[in-house]
Amino acid sequence: MIASIFDLTLCLVILAAAGAATLGRDAFMAVVFYIVYGILIAMAWLRLGAIDVALAEAAIGAGLTGVLLLAALARVARKAGKEPASAASVPATTIATALAALVITIGIAYAFLTLPEPQGLQGHVAENLAASGAENPVTAVLLNFRGWDTLLESIVLLAALLGIWTLAQDEAWGGRAGLRHVTRPGSVLAQFGRILPPIGLLVGVYLVWAGSKQPGGAFQGGTVLAAVWIVTIMAGLMQAPRVADRALRAALVIGPVIFLALAVAGIFAGAFLVLPPAHAGWLILAVEAVLTLSIAATLAMLVFGPPEPEEKR
Amino acid sequence: MTASALALALILTAPLFGALAAMLMGRRGPAIALATIIATAAGTLILLVIIATEGAVHLAIGGWEAPLGIQLRADGLAGGFIATTALVMGAILAVAAKPFAGGKTERRSAYTFWPLALLLWGALNAIFLSGDLFNLYVGLELLTLVAVALVGIEGKRETLAAALRYMMFALMGSLLYLLGAALLYAAHGTLDIALLAERVGSAPGDIVAAAAITGGLAAKTALFPFHAWLPPAHSGAPAPASAMLSGLVPKASFYILLRFWFEAAPDLAGSGVLMLLGGLGAFAMVYGSLLALHQDRLKLIIAYSTVAQLGYLFFIFPLAGGESAAQPWAAGAWSGAIFHALSHAMAKASMFLCAGLIIEAIGHDRLPGMKGIVRALPMTVFAFALAAITLMGLPPSGGFTAKYLMMTASFAAGQPFWALMLILAGLLAAAYLYRPLALAFALPDEDAPAPKAVSRARQFAPLALALAAILLGILSAAPFAFIQIGRPGAAVEGLE
Amino acid sequence: MIDLFTIVMTAAGLIFFAAGTLGLIRFPDTHSRLHALTKADNLGLGLIALGLAVQVPGPADLFKLILIWALAILAAGATAQLVARIAAPAGLGDDEKAQDGGSDGQERRRP
Amino acid sequence: MVLSASLLYGLCGAALIGLGLYGFVVHRRLIRRVLAFNVIGSGIFLLFGAAAYRDPVAGSDPVPQAMIITGIVVALSATALALALIVAHARLARSDALPEDDRSGDPDEGRP
Amino acid sequence: MSSWYLLVATGLLLTIAGALWRVWRGPEQADRMMAAQLVGTGGVGVILLLAAMSGDWAMLDVALVLALLAALAAIAFVKSTRGEGEGDPEDDTPEDRASEDGAPR
After folding, report:
1. If both were cysteines, with which of A76, A215, D13, D60 could D90 make a disulfide (CB 3.0 to 4.6 Å apart)?
2. DSSP, residue by residue, A197-247
3. Among E91, E70, E74, which residue's Cα sits nearest to residue E82?
4. Quick count: other Cβ atoms within 10 Å of Cβ B101?
5. Alpha carbon of A169: minimum distance to chain C alpha carbons (Å)
6. CA B68 to CA B493: how far, in whole Å?
7. Rounded to whole angstroms, how far apart are CA atoms B108 and A168?
8. Is A158 on the interface with E (CB under 8 A)?
9. Helix runs in B321-455, H state only
10. How far apart are CA A252 and CA A295, in angstroms?
């Protein structure tokens, strides 16, 4: 009973935040609502027994996506002089769209309510968990049973980064990613930038290390590490790396490269991407370690953006 | 280690390794691409031989069978698309080696082009081999992000707008597809295509899922009315990128549609849905052709032509889907559409490469400026003409075989409307391709500036592609039999 | 007994949160709202964490609980100071006003 | 009254999808559309996760959880690229909308 | 005991709803951001209670990550209100900062 009340309240608050984020007039307000929405969704995931997802949502949905949106909004506002009207002003279109969205919602809800008896893969996963090399079932799926998805996904991140790098101005190519951040030494921001990284480093590494036994893993840990790096640079304690930097590029690709190499090596053990059960445990940990490094580097570079011309830095 | 595992590993990982290497070593792009072409082509050849001799290949990634793991499936259809992709990518990368050469210092466009192009290849191969709807989603996302990046690589205002427009359609398409996949998993506990075939019924969830997946993929294939993004995106990119975007990228989402409707959910295909898809295709065909007639830039003509040509790929649904699947004409219709997809990939890539070389020679692609270009670029214009023959569907090209098979099927099926549309498509293609060809062969204006020279070796690549499209028609028997290998369920009688 | 302690502490935490929110809603200007807020929610979270500290199974989780509270204080304190500077009347440049667009013009005026 | 968590969050997910769809179609500012895209995405994930938790005794199905994590990362990648494109486009076009949607120059097109 | 945790958590959700109202009203960007900060802290509280309720203390990691990343969003906000996003918010006015901008650090 009380659980239902909690769930119902949470659903309503989520819908309110999402409604303001999508319908609100003011763009900045919408972005703040989206950040709030990410926090709330993380709670919903806990209620659905998905701690791994909650971790990912807290780190990515509430954290990084919000940062990306805030930064983009600020930069666009400075560049786009007059902004276009925020919503379609033809009432007929708006009403038709609203009706269509309502019909689609009802259709999806109906489909959800009429789903047949659940036949999940909990049993299959549990049966094969011992041979997977991970004790956390989600990690077992991500790194072993469906490792090919994860491998491709780590490359999707790189594809997005390459796409962002194509947006650099030609004369800026090879330079430092993003804008230069300056802070006065001893300021609140600079102090904060000193205190947070050690804690964040600890948490990030812990999440990866603990990920094979309990919720956590390369993506969640990598995001935390990326956040640490971003804070350090925003606090002006470090400069963002040059996009032509060899060490940076090596860090970006090492995770996918090692994962791919392992996948190919698998054909000697029977099939593509086979992890021999006897070695799966440490192999997964090793892959997670390098993936974390690459994910952290890639995510941070996604946030920094393309290199900017020196005079603007 | 089996030969098939080695082949699949090469096809899947060589382009990805190449992309990562190119990302690491900025100025070695062309050399890395060459190594990738060799490795992937070797894997493709091995795979083709295995499929031809032993039939469809199945491989459980990591040794985990469905429903727990992801299954790779290489049948004739997959083999045909992989081989065509290898051929087309090889030619494109050969032409791209000059404009995107490494140089002394690293340049932005040259640096990003190579990893993006190789990632595009890797994503295509991953899609063509995957037998799992969620894995297909990840592959499709990789493909989409890379394609969007390639559209915007010139960094001009119009190309960025084109990339953004494409991105918006693609984002919506991905979400719809993902929604469908989520509903299917929730209902059936698997996203393996073979297992879904046994489980998908006509529950509300299945219908909503099928609608969402179809809508999402149609948006990514630029099916009318989701076509608005395509012409500016495909015409705004540099020619080698355009060739990939127009020749190969839309085929991937079409391929997933085929896998979905013919393999995962064949029983769900009611005649209404199939007619709708075919009808939208017919509309796209007419609409794209008419707009192509009105363009004054070569690349825009070619891009609108893609809208039209993709349109009649969708005739496969009414002719070979649903109740037609068990009919004797289905094999012909099915092969016809696949032939069309493959020959269009080669011909369209060839055309965009030709357009790129023409731009290199005269500095732009406005039609009047092309007058008499045949004297400066005889091989290029010849290749363009050959590719045009394929797009018009004239014998002996692969396009002709495709149309012949589909028309025969449409008469056999008692649906002559599609045959009429195919004839119309051919006539319209002839009309919109006539203008650039006629200009190319005309006498140049006296005062026209002399075109810049383009090396013969580079002109050879589009010619090879156009020839391949013709050869696909002349030697159609072997590929016809090949792409039938492992075809699900239906009658295998040909119509030849 | 332990449970009673937890109940009292979490209830007190909730009250502080409620007070903070009330201040956030009712106080007339940005600075006073800021002031009310940071104290209340940090104290509220601290009380809740304290209440739960007696329930955790092991020292590792206790350590996490302390770390969470410390982080929350640190983050809230730093951001409060930073945001306070932004909120200074002169702190909003013309840029920011343009960014918000004209739609909420009437909202901008203090109630 | 006992409503299962799965049911509530599943319906909430469906509503989020509809809300996001509306926002995605109605907005002209591209940043708002990217934001709506993210709302739709998390609605789909929530629906997926709720469906995976219909049997609380068996616990949440780990396979959808893994897929959702993959999906979240993919959505982040798409968002990052889209936003970077928007910023680059705004630098050249001085507008946060596609040319066909950009009516800021139109004097009749004021906001109510 | 778990009912009590849920009760307190529901109460926290209501305070979060109150904070949402302030995000909506503004009027300053700073108001909206501070209200979001309250949602973050309240969210951490809810997660602690959910962890105690379910006895699954691994949920504490989520609270940890949330607390860590809440700071990131706030810093990004503060940064985004200055110049092109790069400056120190504690420098007094945008004009001051603009003159420092060209100087090497």
Report:
1. A76
2. HHHHHHHHHHHHHHTTTSS--HHHHHHHHHHHHHHHHHTTSSPPPBTT-HH
3. E91
4. 12
5. 24
6. 36
7. 7
8. no
9. 330-362, 373-376, 378-392, 398-412, 416-441
10. 7
DSSP string across C44-78: HHHHHHHHHHTT-SSHHHHHHHHHHHHHHHHHHHH
- Mean pLDDT for B344-349 is 96
- For C75-111, write each residue's pLDDT tens digit: 877 777 777 777 665 444 333 333 333 333 333 333 3
Residues C56, E57 contacting (CB under 8 angstroms): yes
Task: Nearest by CB to C71, from E16, E25, E68: name it.
Answer: E68
Q: Which residues of B touch A271 (CB under 8 A)?
A: 5, 59-63
- Token representation of residue E8: 């307190």
Tokens 């496969």 locate to B316
Tell the burial category of C1 from Cβ atoms under 10 Å away from its Cβ (0-12, 13-18, 19+).
exposed
Domain limits for position D63: 7-99
Q: Containing H/E element for B58?
A: strand B57-60
Closest residue of A to D44, CA-based?
A108
Is the model more confident about B468 or about C38?
A: B468
Residue type (1 letter), B485: I
All structural domains of chain B with their residue ranges: 1-128, 130-268, 285-496
- Residue whose C-alpha is closest to residue B98's, from B299, B245, B238, B237: B238
State residue C104's pLDDT score. 34
Is the preceding omega at residue E27 within 30 degrees of 0, hence cis? Answer: yes
What is the percent of chain A where pLDDT is above 90? 55
* Amino acid sitting at position B364: H
State pLDDT tens for residues A155-176: 999 999 999 999 998 888 888 8
* pLDDT of res. B1: 61
DSSP state of A142: I
- Identity at E48, one-letter amino acid code: L
Least confident among B436-445, D23-32, D98-107:
D98-107
Q: Are D58 and D6 in contact (CB under 8 A)?
A: no
Q: Residue D7: its pLDDT value, please?
A: 92
Q: Which residues of B344-363 are buried (b: 16+ CB within 10 A; e: fewer)?
A: bbbbbbbbbbbbbbbbbbbe
CATH number at residue D28: 1.10.287.3510
Q: Which amino acid is at A142?
A: L
Do B262 and B195 contact (CB within 8 A), yes or no?
no
Domain layout of chain C by residue ranges: 2-101
| Candidates E30, E44, E52; nearest CB to C55 | E52
Q: Please tell me the distance from the alpha carbon of residue B32 to that of residue A179, in angstroms, as a whole number.
A: 32
Instruction: Report the alpha-carbon distance of residue D34 to residue D11 in Å, rounded.
Output: 23
Q: Which residues of A touch E24 (CB under 8 A)?
A: 20, 24, 29, 33
Per-residue pLDDT of chain A in tens (313 residues, 90 and over written 9): 888 899 999 999 999 999 999 998 888 899 999 999 999 999 999 999 999 999 999 999 888 999 999 989 888 887 765 555 555 556 888 889 899 999 999 999 999 999 888 888 988 999 999 888 888 999 999 999 999 999 999 999 999 999 999 999 888 888 888 877 777 777 778 888 888 889 899 999 999 988 888 888 899 999 999 999 998 888 888 888 989 899 999 999 999 999 999 999 988 888 899 988 888 999 999 999 999 999 999 999 999 999 988 665 5
Which of A153, A127, A143, A51 lies closest to B67, judged by CA? A127
Chains B and A touch (3+ CB pairs under 8 A): yes
Give me the interface pTM, i.e. the ipTM. 0.93
The shortest C-alpha distance from B353 to chain A (Å) reads 21
Q: Is the peptide bond between B115 and the residue preceding it cis, with omega within 30 degrees of 0?
A: no
Asked if residue D61 is part of any domain, the answer here is yes
Domain count, chain D: 1
Question: CB under 8 Å to B14, separation ≥6 — which residues?
Answer: B36, B39, B40, B43
